[in-house]
Specification:
This protein has 545 residues and is an alpha/beta fold. It contains 23 helices and seven strands. Helix content is 63%, strand content 7%. Helix 7 runs parallel beside helix 9. The longest helix is centred in the middle third of the chain and has 29 residues.
């Protein structure tokens, strides 16, 4: 089952990029790659003041090695996901046992949100790897104070900060604080080596701060989100986290205080129910023992989870993937809970998992037979063969709820990356029209967007170049034949301008990351737009009316 899950992960590396964040970030790295400017973060010619550099640096370097393609963009995140799995295993092995470590890593890599972060890549896979790696090394450093653990802790913290700002340092620091406090050893923080650790972190972060200083602090005249006088350094230290938390700068995504509760239920499938029970039971036991130190219990895991859950829930800007940074700690808590239960609890755990597994099997069946049915007899044959194999495995391992859980999630992951995402991406115009350009041999230098109308990050990326935007008057006044990428309103504007034009490509454009009936219903899918177009215009010839 782990081999099958690995196959699903690897398949996901080659799927076209999803709009918007994934393809958007990939295009910022593409600009780095095209210009050779690894200092500035530029988004379609505009200064980008939001995330630090690490994802963009790694992606641009990956382009140099593998070329500009989906694999190259996703590969660094995939490597950090492997790091996250290994760090989770290593930390759980130190705290409990190697068996708990193996189960912890297995739970992590089979959780839906962690898997999704490797297909719809943002900062989260890299950040999660950095955070759990930092926690692992900080705990070793707290116990042993070795030079190696000091450097590795500092490296993990610096890389986490260079990925998404202060959260990369705050989360590991909070975890190690709870770890040391529970051991009644707070005076150990007076050791000068902790100060040395902080200095090493700052030294490692100098390249990021210097780049932001060059791009923003030296140019206070630059207008970012409607304001000038922006300090890149201040933004890195406080601005990004404070603005997102308060809802200023990026707006709000709702004030639902339970947003992350119901998000966690699907994001950590198939382990979410057990994870909630595990954290609750751990806190309950610590309260019952009045938080007396025990070497076999580790308060820092549930304490870190609960405190961060409360902090995240108070934010005015919430997105589901914000929870990913907690998944390794949830995985360790869940694994230790499973391994430490008696017969009565094992029966309850088995019942919980069989209910969850039944839901996953039902979702997988619906995906395969109705929402994204096989398009050929060969695909149908493969699905039937897998179904027979699945049934046989369920019969053989019917009493092994962990194996049954792995079977269920493996089938879901394979379905998603081999059937669902490739099918859904046919409804994303950018990558479809980019493929059209490649197949027909259109000149990429002649392709432009029409100013004031929709663009597509996936179109730029899958053509391997940043597409310029032109106003309609420039197109009219030009003496060159051009290919214009635009939406329905842009097509009407071209027709109204009197330009001779010909539609050479058309594709439906839906937001597939936000499933709707237009995406999911096979009867409606791809039949009613909205449409994006490739239009060949010839300014030297007027259209006939």
């Amino acid at each position: 089952m782990l081999v099958a899950i690995g196959a699903a992960y690897i398949r996901g590396l080659f799927i076209p990029l999803l709009n918007n964040d994934s393809a958007h970030h990939a295009n910022i790295a593409l600009t780095m790659y095209e210009t050779g400017d690894f200092v500035s973060l530029i988004d379609r010619g505009v200064d980008y003041l939001d995330k630090p550099h690490l994802l963009f640096w790694l992606s641009a370097l990956s382009y140099k090695v593998f070329g500009v393609n989906a694999f190259a963009f996703r590969f660094p995140s995939f490597l950090f996901s492997i790091l996250a799995g290994y760090a989770t295993y290593s930390l759980a092995s130190i705290l409990y046992s190697k068996k708990v470590g193996i189960l912890s890593a297995t739970i992590l890599i089979t959780s839906y949100g962690f898997f999704l972060a490797n297909t719809d890549v943002r900062m989260d896979a890299i950040l999660t790897g950095c955070i759990i790696f930092s926690i692992w090394q900080l705990i070793i450093f707290a116990e042993q104070k070795t030079r190696l653990s000091l450097f590795l802790s500092a490296l993990g913290l610096a890389l986490g900060f260079a990925t998404k700002g202060a959260v990369g340092i705050v989360v590991p620091s909070l975890a190690v604080f709870f770890y040391v406090a529970y051991r009644r050893n707070l005076q150990s923080f007076l050791n000068v080596q902790w100060l040395l650790l902080g200095l090493v972190v700052m030294l490692l972060l100098l390249p990021v701060f210097y780049c932001f200083y060059l791009q923003f602090d030296l140019h206070p005249e630059k207008v970012i989100r409607g304001t000038s006088g922006n300090s890149g350094i201040n933004f890195l230290l406080l601005g990004q986290s404070v603005q997102r938390y308060s809802g200023t700068g990026w707006g709000t995504t709702g004030t639902d205080p339970f947003f992350f509760v119901h998000t966690f239920l699907w994001a950590f499938l198939p382990w979410s129910i057990l994870a909630i029970v595990a954290v609750w039971r751990s806190l309950q036991r610590h309260v019952q023992t009045r938080f007396i130190y025990s070497p076999v219990r580790h308060l820092f895991i549930p304490a870190t989870i609960v405190v961060l859950f409360i902090i995240l829930s108070g934010s005015h800007f919430k997105l589901p993937h914000y929870l990913n940074i907690l998944f390794p700690l949830f995985a360790i808590s869940t694994a230790s809970f499973i391994k430490g239960r008696g017969k009565n609890w094992k029966m309850r755990i088995r019942i919980i998992q069989y209910v969850v597994v039944s839901i996953i099997f039902l979702i997988t069946i619906i995906l395969n037979l109705w929402l994204f049915p096989p398009s050929s007899s060969s695909d149908l044959t493969v699905i039937v063969a897998l179904a027979i194999l699945l049934l046989a495995l369920i019969i053989i391992y019917r009493k092994q709820y962990l194996v049954i859980t792995l079977i269920a999630i493996a089938m879901l992951f394979l379905t998603l990356n081999f059937t669902v995402f490739p099918g859904a991406l046919e409804l994303q115009a950018g990558n479809v029209l980019a493929q059209k350009v490649k197949e027909t041999g259109m000149s990429r230098n002649s392709i432009h967007y029409l100013k004031g109308h929709e663009m597509s990050n996936s179109f730029d990326f899958h053509l391997g170049r940043t597409i310029r935007t032109l106003p309609i008057q420039t197109v009219v006044d030009s003496h060159e034949e051009r290919i214009i990428y635009t939406d329905e309103e842009g097509r009407k504007e071209i027709e109204a301008s009197g330009l001779s034009n010909e539609v050479v490509g058309r594709a439906v454009n839906l937001k597939i990351t936000r499933p709707s009936t237009l995406v999911l219903d096979p009867e409606k899918r791809g039949k009613s737009g909205p449409w994006h177009y490739l239009i060949r215009v010839n300014p030297t010839t007027s259209a006939s009316f």
